[in-house]
């Protein structure tokens, strides 16, 4: 219905009951549009069409009308671009995995909803994101000053977020903004800087040095992990045929593979002192070399081509004994799933592609949490991670086998300074009394033998596995002594 300041009122031909165009007597020759809304508290939305040309005004009014119709068809109140409201809809719009859903809900409840609140999504850009980072940096310190309780992972002193934590939260925010764009709530996704150095955000870079897992806890974890992996069910499958999934009831191959991979990943990387990052995840089967020593003992060399320190100059060793048996078992499992090609990754996916360490790490965290071993015994503030097994293996070599610092540093492919400072407490209880070649092949340098004791039938099992896998058993040759020749007459 026209008012005193509305002139030249026109009902739109495409929807005359809801859309009207008009000019305002106090605003010159510019056209405006008014569209009736079906949902929400507002009855109408009004907007300037920014033109005095009638045909162009009709075109722009029709575009706005289509946007409103589309929004209403989705059950959304047009114009409601409140951050918290939209984020709740974003969460409900996806079929999330439980772990991912828990992470997103936690970040939203703890941080996003408190900072962004009812802010308009359209106003969220680089400047607002930088302000959020500054607020997030001091969040727990301010909470502590206010006398509020800290999460158990912080201990007694509030911690600032790490670079990886901030990047994870940024990824969630970007995913939300892309959803907003797909819903036509915003036209473009703002660029949110990920290089925090450019923003001068002093992210925490220091790393928390891991500690060794107590023997009793380690034994419990390995036992539970073996049951969780389903390796005995896999053996049952092969006993009745060639299908590795035959004895698994209604289980997905990817799930079975991931659990088996976790178990052997923990064992093999622990025995060989591989870093559980790219050193292990980018290792390929063609980099695994099976060897036999002069004494007839079987072992393997793992030639690392990529990793934190780049390519290794010498191989990581899977020593003779139970450690080598685990490698042979994992080789047989991989072969049964068709994942034993030369270019396939040793701890990769079913298609042979690399499985990033955080994939394996997430499954490991869920397993430990379910079994009540998420934290070190007696230290409820320190989580057990994949790297904890490397720290355990290094610590055992110092305290149990009395390796000296140089030997440990070379075997673990790290600096002597790092070993000396990070494991100083272990040296106090283990005086290094000998120096040997760190790459000699010992019968007993593996973690499980310490816990469970030696296995007298290992050599037979290893010979049987090597025979099944077609790995040649080479008998070391005895060198013939050369006869001394007499001096040649001049």
Write a concise synopsis of the structure shown.
This protein is an alpha+beta fold and 490 residues long. The chain folds into three domains: 6-73; 83-199, DNA polymerase, domain 1, CATH 1.10.150; 215-468, Intergrase catalytic core (hpI Integrase, Chain A, Orthogonal Bundle), CATH 1.10.443.
Q: Could you please describe the fold and organization of this structure?
A:
With 490 residues, the chain is α+β, with helices and mostly antiparallel strands. The chain folds into three domains: 6-73; 83-199, DNA polymerase, domain 1 (Orthogonal Bundle), CATH 1.10.150; 215-468, hpI Integrase, Chain A. 45% of the residues lie in helices and 9% in strands. The strands form three sheets. A four-stranded antiparallel β-sheet has the order 1-2-3-4, with helices on one face. A three-stranded antiparallel β-sheet has the order 5-6-7. β5 (288-292) and β6 (298-302) form a beta hairpin. α2 packs antiparallel against α3 (98-115).
Radius of gyration: 33 Å
What is the C-level CATH assignment of the largest domain? Mainly Alpha
Overall mean confidence score, pLDDT: 79
CATH topology call of the largest domain: hpI Integrase, Chain A
CATH architecture of the largest domain: Orthogonal Bundle
Distance between the termini: 129 Å
Summarize the helix and strand pattern as letters: EEEEHHHHHHHHHHHEEEHHEEHHHHHH
Q: What is the number of independent domains?
A: 3
**Dominant shape:** elongated
Helix percentage range: 40-55%
**Binned strand content:** 5-15%
